[in-house]
Amino acid sequence: MPHHTAARTLVRLFLGAAAASLVVTAAAAPAAVAEPEPKAPEEFVALGDVDRTILLDMRYTTPHNFVGDRIDGYRKPMCILTEPAAAALQKAQRQFLQDGYSLKVYDCYRPQRAVDHFVRWAEDLDDLRMKREFYPEVEKSRLFEDGYIAEKSGHSRGSTVDLTLVELPARDTRPYEPGEPLVPCFAPQDTRFPDNSVDMGTGYDCFDTLSHTLDERIQGEQRKNRQLLKDGLEKAGFVNYANEWWHFTYQPEPFTDTYFDFPVERRSLSGKEK
Questions:
Q1: Would you call 37 a catalytic residue per the annotation?
Q2: Of 244, 253, 265, 273, catalytic
């Protein structure tokens, strides 16, 4: 056999053995295993399992929010709360129903990953897609300083809820269409984005001092509606956050310093499938 032919044969044998070795190595490599999602503690429930009459308008599962995208961790349009908070909402709802109203929930338990999403968005000063509706008179660079965005949220402890009142029978509302013209959240009710709730003076998640529950500029029917919501929820054990007419926390909270990060979906409620 010529010398150069023998050399080529040796090279082919070497490459073939190397390839076979790679195949064996790849086959032996363990497959990547996804980390299991965290579960909710047993003290958490789905609000719909406690009271099916409370209306849901879960904004963070849709792009109609101040970010303009579905928010991380919101996989299903459901409200998850601690059991005491859910029971207290049911108590408040019973009274509101007698008076011709229903509670409507915008947000309940909020995963830490959603809060992190808010923080990343707030740090991106070029993303102003939803400014005209949700923060028309606030510079985005001031959202942290003015307290509209923070690295932790009481919602992640599971006993805080954002909500409003709807006069019965509830009217239908149209869905938000991404890219549609935006109207400031403090515009008159008949011109801002349609919501079947009573007139609270601003829309939900309006980054403006007009959203302060007892702002003196809010008078007449709007102030009456805010007071109606506040009084009814306080009787059931909730405390209002003075800077947001829609924000209430049940007291005493079962979890006072734990910020959870399980996703909003039925499977997070281990052993409580319905």
A1: no
A2: 244
